[in-house]
Amino acid sequence: MEVVEKRQAALQKKYHKLVWNELKNFFRWPKIIGTLATIGIVFYALKLFQQDVVIVQMAFVVLVVSFFVGIFWLSKKNKKNRQKTGKKWLLKEIIFGYGSITGLMNLPIQIALNIRGENYSDWALLFFSFLLIIMALGEYIVLVLIPSKAETILKQTYPEYEFAN
Fold first, then answer.
1. Residue 63, pLDDT score
2. 119 near 104, Cβ under 8 Å?
3. What average pLDDT does range 84-91 have in this prediction?
4. What 8-state DSSP symbol labels residue 28?
5. What is the pLDDT of residue 1?
6. Is the Cβ–Cβ distance between 155 and 162 less than 8 Å?
7. Could you give the C-alpha distances from 122 to 58, 107, 119, 146, 151, in angstroms and in order?
8. 86 in the Ramachandran plot: left (φ > 0), alpha (ψ -120 to 50) or beta?
């Protein structure tokens, strides 16, 4: 059991590194232009609608709901694939079942939105914008990007994976 736990810890570390590397790619040329533009658009929208807190909170609720729908869809897809092949791969389970940790990124935003005040400062709105985009990118990476590369990652990690499937 100790060997399995160490292997699982090593694969989780590998998965964290994959997620981190993909997130860093959004802050490299040329993707950084789109990332900064998106942060600017969200900042402007938050500034425009900060008096109407319900609109801002609904945007966050939509992001949270879409995340949980994505997690449900991925786990269903993985379960169907596991039943089809009859094999269970540890890294594949991490890739298709690990995304729930990204949902915890929503907590700071929800806490911040529930703090009432007349107006948020521009720095606070910029922070919320940055946090929202980082959260959205994290969810995109965990729910779409890495699962789409799962076959390649699994073949690199497990040479026998190609023959088993």
1. 75
2. no
3. 74
4. S
5. 77
6. yes
7. 21, 21, 9, 34, 43
8. left
Average pLDDT over the chain, rounded to an integer: 78
- Whole-angstrom distance, CA of residue 25 vs CA of residue 53: 32
Residue 70's nearest CA partner among 158, 141, 1 is 141
Q: Which of 23, 27, 62, 32 is nearest to 146 (CA)?
A: 23
Write out the two tokens for 10.
Answer: 């090593």
pTM for the predicted model, two decimal places: 0.76
The count of C-alpha atoms lying within 13 angstroms of the C-alpha of 14, restricted to the half-sphere facing its C-beta, is 16
Query: Helix crossing, 53-85 with 90-97: angle to 10°?
Result: 160
What type of residue is 100?
S
DSSP letter string, 127-145 = HHHHHHHHHHHHHHIIIII
Distances in Å between the Cα of 144 and the Cα atoms of 2, 13, 68, 155 are: 32, 19, 13, 18
Among positive and negative, which fits the CA dihedral 53, 67, 17, 108? positive
How many residues in total does the chain contain? 165
